[in-house]
Amino acid sequence: MGRLFSVKMRSSKGGAHLCGAEAIVDESSISKAVYSFVKRALSSKRGIPDFVNLKVEAVKQEPIYSPLLPVFHVSQPLREVLVKLFKLASIPPSLGLSFYSLLLKGPSPTGGVMRGALIVEVPSGKRLEPDKFKGVRASCLGITSRALGELKEKAGKFYTDRLKDALVLTSKICSYPGVLGELCVSDDPDYTTGYFSIPKIGYFRLFNLKPYGLSKGGRVIFVSRNLEVPPFIDYLKNSPFIGSSFPGYYFELPFR
Ligand code: AMP
Question: How far apart are CA 197 and CA 69, in angstroms?
Fold first, then answer.
């Protein structure tokens, strides 16, 4: 294996964000990643971009190689499951549900969507992200070809690139000590599937999380009171994280 490179793409139109993608790849795979990201930018359902930014950068820190979280495909009633999941993550359900509602309204102070995630202290509900308009973005994400193969094989017809990207992102977030869980509602109006994930337990894939056509959404990272925010943000932004194996895609929940 050669040197590792981070490849990032973001596209926009008239200044508004359209889509983004990133990967950590071996130097021999840079052109393939660049090609597939340009293709993705040009085929975004949200329109043809007038700006595509591509960044290719050598990875300077030693990456963290870690197993991805297992995925649980949830078919039980949404609210009931959310309450159980919040309890399992030691998050008061009323707090969890209030942030779920906030994501559906638009979590930025103007009622719009944010580029990054909220960080919410449990149980106070205090928002800890320094910029309430932008939130905090997690970056420097990759997956080994072995883990990707396992994910594709185990998820079968339920595999999508979105699932892969979200699973790597949340596995990184949930690997940090003091994180209790993460809730994601996509801001894509056509995409109503999201997840709640819990460290060491799993990624719960939730369907019909929002009404079809709604362009609101976001991510909330719930953390315990003693978590120090600046090193956590530095970890989210800068520590290279590579998913190295995938435990399984399950249709039964690990609780009743
Ligand atoms: P998406 O799942 O791409 O529709 O994103 C849903 C929401 O998650 C966005 O509105 C952002 O607020 C947030 N988000 C997207 N990408 C990231 C990221 N890399 N790190 C943190 N938050 C993100």
Answer: 8
- Measured in degrees and rounded to the nearest 5, phi and psi for residue 185 equal -120, 120
Choose the residue to mutate in 18, 44, 219, 232 for probing ligand 1, maximizing ligand atoms within 8 Å of C-beta. Answer: 219
Ligand 1 first shell, C-beta below 6 A: 113-117, 135, 137-138, 169, 184, 186-188, 217-219
**Residue found by looking up tokens 């997956």 in the block:** 143
Cis before residue 211, ω within 30 degrees of 0?
no
Name which residue sits closest to atom 20 of ligand 1, judged by CA.
137
How far is the first Cα of the chain from the last one, in angstroms, to the nearest whole number? 44
State pLDDT tens for residues 131-153.
999 999 999 999 999 999 999 99
d(CA 199, CA 181): 6
Residue with CA nearest ligand 1 atom 15: 116
> Residue 219 C-alpha to ligand 1 middle, in angstroms?
6
pLDDT digits (tens, 9 = 90+) for 36-49: 999 999 988 778 99
Asked if 31 and 54 touch (Cβ cutoff 8 Å), the reply is no
210, two tokens: 């929002």
Q: How far is 167 from 138, CA to CA, in rounded Å? A: 12
Under 8 Å between Cβ of 174 and 197: yes
